[in-house]
Amino acid sequence: MTSFFPLRRGEGATLVFLIAFSAFAFIPQWRTIEAGGMAVFGWLIAALMLISPALALVTILRRDGTRGAGAGAGGAEPDATAEEGGGDA
Prior knowledge:
Layout: H1 9-25, E1 34-35, E2 38-39, H2 40-64, H3 78-85
Antiparallel strand pairs: 1-2
Helix pairs in contact: 1-2
């Protein structure tokens, strides 16, 4: 059976890393240990909130190959396509 949305190797690795980091962050012992005047649990959750979207963004940009050029990057511009197929205006 094939997947409806197939994961590439980098996407799968990102998913496994985020799930493992989340499981590590929610270990109950982190709630009692303090670092910098705050529980380690808070530091780990803050790190998760920063790392998760950043890592997802890097993974998506690497998959698309657009490097932030936006949707449809690398294709023909809409105006150029419209001018080619049209008649005399």
